[in-house]
Amino acid sequence: MITLHGATLSNYYNKVKIVLLEKNLPFTEQLQRTRSTDEAVLNATPLGKIPFVTIDGRTLCESQVIVDCLEAMHPNPPLVPADPVGAAKVRELCAFMELYVELVGRELYGEAFFGGKASEEVKARVREQLTRNLAAFKRLVKFSPYIAGPDFTLADAAAYAALPAAAQASKAVLGEDLVAAAGIDWKPYLKLLGERPSVQRVNADRKRDAEASAAKAAAAAAPKG
């Protein structure tokens, strides 16, 4: 039995969920927020990050570790090539997107999505790093039609998590979609991913929970009496 812990508004949670759905694995979902102080949660994910999973009573954190484990446990349908170097190239894309695109862009998320404010120093640094890193990333991607080649792989689940978030955050905070500016045509690619039942399910669940969260916030802010 697999339990996925986290929240549908988390892009990395949805990365793992897409892989579970692509592999047709039965799983349950357990809502878990970040920064928990509960000892049981911290024993599973010591930094309080989401997602994490429980697999037959044992826990794993870090999304790439989780999806690699799922691939090893349930190799069919395969989400990496049989060729070891081809499989490594898929994981190369995953690592590059998460370390050099999503993680860099994450410094803008507070202002882009949560009402915070990034300093001008942070904005300048992120712009410089993302511009350089995305130009390098363009050398790795295939888009033929999927990001690593003709087949949907773990790299596409990672791209779903990384590319739109970095593009939308840079557009909102820096005034320019740096992903598109680097010549990475991510919108048609995201539309292609959206044709897959796994991504449709993830998008629908995220929309449902986002609307419920907005309604709850509006109710809490409404005048009383």
Provide the descriptors you would attach to this structure in a database record:
4-stranded mixed beta sheet, Glutathione S-transferase Yfyf (Class Pi), Chain A, domain 2, 225 residues, globular, alpha+beta, Glutaredoxin
The SSE string, one letter per element, is: EHEHEEHHHHHHHH
The first-to-last residue Cα distance is 47 Å
Spans of at least 5 consecutive residues whose pLDDT stays below 50 are: none
The CATH class of the largest domain is: Mainly Alpha
Trace the largest sheet across and list its strands. 2-1-3-4
Number of helices, where a helix is a run of at least 4 consecutive DSSP H or I residues:
10
Range of strand content: 5-15%
Supply the helix-strand structural class: alpha+beta
- The count of DSSP E runs of length 2 or more, i.e. the number of strands, is 4
Main beta sheet: 4 strands, mixed
Mean pLDDT rating? 96
Taken from the alpha-carbon principal axes, the silhouette is globular
CATH-assigned fold name of the largest domain:
Glutathione S-transferase Yfyf (Class Pi), Chain A, domain 2
Number of domains: 2
CATH architecture name of the largest domain? Up-down Bundle
How much helix is in the residues? 55-70%
* CA radius of gyration: 18 Å
Structure description:
The protein contains ten helices and four strands; from the N terminus they run βαβαββαααααααα. The protein is an alpha+beta fold. The chain has two domains: 2-73, Glutaredoxin (3-Layer(aba) Sandwich); 84-196, Glutathione S-transferase Yfyf (Class Pi), Chain A, domain 2 (Up-down Bundle). Helix content is 59%, strand content 8%. It starts with a strand and ends with a helix.
